[in-house]
Amino acid sequence: MSNTQKYALITGASSGIGYELAKIFAREKYNLVLVSRNQQELDKAAAEFKQNGVEVVTIAKDLFSNDEAFSVYDEVKAKGIQVDVLVNDAGQGLYGEFVDTDIKRELDIVNLNIGATLILTKSFLKDMVARKEGKILNLASIASKLPGPWQSVYHATKAFILSFSEAIRAEVKDSNITVTALMPGATDTDFFNKADMQDSKMVQDKSSMSNAADVAQDGYDALMAGDDKIISGFKNKAQVNMSNVVPDSALAANMYEQQAPVDKDQK
Which of 75, 100, 124, 141 is the most exposed place for a label (fewest CB within 10 A)? Predict the structure, then answer.
């Protein structure tokens, strides 16, 4: 099957890494199913990607809701679309020390980062297994390998995604299906604004951030190669390698300082 007959479903597709991944898939002549909360932003992205001569279907859903995540699959099936590539990109974080942060928002983040990924993966993976073909790209993070003071829940959700991706990859290895985890570091997207993280030392140092287009290309290349995971960026690879030999307590202390607000000492 040529790419012009294939569909890639991408969540979080209206901005950041998800948008850049959608741009690559459109350039490679995949038809797109774009999922995000904001219909206006989806329509704007769809108009751009259609210029590549591909079909673009938009589905506006709030993936903080498990019910809406389930309904994505139902809508896709109702449209008669076969999803050949699933990209679980949508995710958010929340900045602050856990004792002070909003538990309801954190539970929403767990529903989005973990729940939506589980629901969409299970739904579409069943179809892929039945036809013995398919690809899945899950957005993990180097946060999955590092304790994350100031972003404790986000780091924990990404550790889940990495472990989950590696596990189901092993389960479907004989079904001609690949599952790939993309592991970027801090990337210049709207993620930090949504996480209320503008005061973090890490965010204020924009020079240390990766480019979303570069991260997306790394993810796409790894997905097409059938790799199990890809750490995007040399500095991030070095940081993960260090995590394999440095005690977790030291890693946590280092991350505490990196992610602390610039005025922490003035509190």
Answer: 100
